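Quick one, T. Sequence first:
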Amino acid sequence: MLALYEGDLPVDEILSDWYKEFKEKNYGAFINFVGIVRDEDGIDGLSFDIYEPILNSWFDTWQSKAQERGAYLLMAHSKGDVLNHESSYISAVLSPKRRVALELIDEFVEDFKASAPIWKYDIINGKREYALDRSTALKNSGILKG
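Structure tokens:
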């Protein structure tokens, strides 16, 4: 399950909804990761652009990997602006056994940071500035310069 939201994520609501939906489906582990925008380098927050077709394909590939291990993935991410101390990213793994969930959440979050088609901008004085120094180039892609 992949969900995109405009602005910051309603963390309590999302995690509660996920728990309620899956608690009786006989998973023994529900491991989640919540990303929070840090106040650093003079930014007021972050802003995100997402290329949804590639994100959906990337997520579907991961969901298949999870299902091969008897697990299920959940993810929510923000589009647009997210101010400091708010959440822009939540992921979770449900599995019958904790070890699978613990390993899978680590692998998934690390690959998310390296491979998901989400472009990050710093918000500084109300303006978006591409965060080139904190971005990872996607394989077979680049930035067009005019």
